[in-house]
Design brief:
The structure is a homodimer of 162-residue chains. With 162 residues, chain A is mainly α. Chain A is built from 7 helices and 2 strands. The longest helix of chain A is centred in the last third of the chain and has 18 residues. Chain B binds a DNA duplex (39 and 39 nucleotides) through α3.
DNA sequence: GAGAGACTACTCGGATACAGTCTGTCCGAGTAAATCCGG
DNA sequence: CCGGATTTACTCGGACAGACTGTATCCGAGTAGTCTCTC
């Protein structure tokens, strides 16, 4: 049970996009250079975000991506689910139905107790992620990233965003 | 991010082992038949449990597995981690270090904010699993499984356990 | 000088190979039970 | 009949292939900006 590296990339890219000037776009190429990632593969992560309607894209020169909603209305869960999918991490194949003691035609009432417990844990994980927005992340970063680096990064992005 | 089917199998097997008479063992073969699973592959899940010291094994006729601790002292988390490993689901490759604006020899103080948030969610997931023991699971099952099926299953297991 | 049209260069998006892990299977080492033999 | 050595049959444990998802890469469709030509 390990999340794909796309999740990490998508989150970092969203953090950068959240600091973008209003109405501007940032290209995959710029995002890839900023994070030192393979441009071609990173584009797949951004495509996932685009399909989930988290970001908007534009073509042509000075094209790229920008957030489709305010940063305060995009949660970590949105980003994670855009990349990993909304399916629960635990899948119940209902193996209790194979019990040899079970009478023919026996029908279960509800989901298996084991699955219920696993799903509760999954729900707790998602709830935690739902509670953190990109805006909150930016706020945290602004506090702990050295001001000089923060400013120069902002300049870098602004320069590449148009 | 999807858990392997071994996790489901291991949990169901632990549930059965928890209802085993004191001092008896149940073989992989019996567990596989009870759940309708491939014996050879199921054995790998049980090996994981054995390596994690959750179960004890014995060889020879009437050999097999039994819980190494009381059911009340084995949590879901123990079983899940035995199969999936104790590593966190989110790995931070510290891509912020590739930021082109970063001065040479710059050294980060703590873990990346994004990683911290993801790890908090992971901790919440694990905490939820740590809070449920096999004993609690058995109690739940005993309440919701039809008494006739519960009894016959217990008989079946007892018959195969030695 | 201004406007319209064509061109260019850059973008995203999906289709295409490679790798690693999960799934499934096999056989050998080791042991507890059952058997057999001698006392 | 009882005790012990031998045989046996059954178990676990690790070593060995196949399938699927994750990783990485490529090229084509489409558009915004730019340039040029005409008025």
């Amino acid at each position: 049970m390990i999340l794909k590296s796309q999740v990490e990339w998508a989150l970092h890219c969203c953090a950068v996009l959240a600091g973008l000037p209003e109405g501007r776009y940032l290209s995959t190429k710029a995002l890839a250079e900023f994070h030192g990632l393979p441009k071609e593969y990173l584009s797949k992560a951004l495509q996932s975000l685009s399909q989930a309607k988290l970001v908007e894209s534009t073509l042509g020169p000075s094209g790229g991506y920008r957030l489709a909603r305010p940063a305060s209305e995009v949660s970590f869960l949105d980003v994670v689910e855009a990349v990993e999918g909304k399916e629960r991490s635990f899948v119940c194949s209902n193996i209790r139905a194979n019990n040899p003691c079970r009478p023919e035609g026996f029908c279960d009432t509800g989901p298996c107790a084991i699955a219920r417990i696993m799903w509760e844990a999954d729900a707790a994980w998602r709830a935690k992620l739902r509670g953190v927005s990109l805006a909150a992340l930016i706020q945290t970063l602004e506090q702990e990233v050295p001001p000089a680096l923060w400013r120069s990064s902002g300049e870098w992005v602004k320069r590449r965003a148009g």
